[in-house]
TrEMBL record:
The keyword RNA-binding does not apply. It holds the Pfam family PfkB. It comes from the Bacteria. Residues 14-290 form the Carbohydrate kinase PfkB domain. The keyword Signal does not apply. Keywords: Kinase, Transferase. One of its GO terms (cellular component) is cytosol. This is Sugar kinase. One of its GO terms (biological process) is phosphate-containing compound metabolic process. GO terms for molecular function: kinase activity.
Amino acid sequence: MTVVTLGVHIVDVLARPVESIPAGQDTHLLEQIRITAAGAAAGTAVALAKLGVEVASAGAAGDDELGDFLLMIMARHGVDVGGIVRKPGEQTAASILPIRPDGGRPSFHVPGANLVLSPADLDPARIKAAEVLHLGGMDVTWGLHDAGFFALLDEARAGGTVVTMDLLSNMPDLMQGARAFLPHVDYLLPNEEQALMMSGAAGAEEAAAKLLAEGPRGVLVTLGGEGSLVATASGSTRVPALDVPVVDTTGCGDAYCAGFIAGLTGGEDVLGAARLGTAVAARVAGGLGSDAGLDGLDRSLL
């Protein structure tokens, strides 16, 4: 197994362009509505599959119609969904995203089954067999804030698995909780707001340095239209964003993670992998949803 993505799985319903919520029973006609598999684990898994990387996903979904759809769409894109457990009585996590004309994305969200994922739901053998294990949304999967799970991460790393981690929320209390994972991961990939909250720093460079000191061998801070900051023990480097028309920013962070992981599995160094992440994120920003622009993509052109 090349990559396992573990963590948050969400069904996204997206509509664009939305300039306002209609009053009363009024209707606004739109250009596009999509429903996708998203979230820091599921969205990254689908993007990896579209990049030609062998990938399995692990997490929790409800025993409901949304969960049926989530597993169906992920499997259709080539993701092994055998590690996603169904939770009776829980709703599958879902978001409604009205996308503004400038690509901004306010959201309505139900966290659902992600909140009840626990170490007992995981297959340790699958995790330890991964070349890369991507932790997606550990700030909200509270059941994995567990000493036994940290020990499993350390055992996997000792066996050669590279562990990467992305976050989901922008809530200060959850950011502090996610810091417990830092001694157990190789690469942390937060956005700037998350990095500042986790570290208490005033700027991205200071934040990356502080987070790097807590255990990872690399911290990659995504900076939106400014690109990303890549920090390792040898120093920090800015990787500029690509200049593309932005349709929707949903899933750009997941796409960056997918490109970065694809680069690592393809033999790129950290900077080369970050540049691939930048290119994949730019593709996704040009369409609607966290996997936009990746169908039939020739990765060699990135």
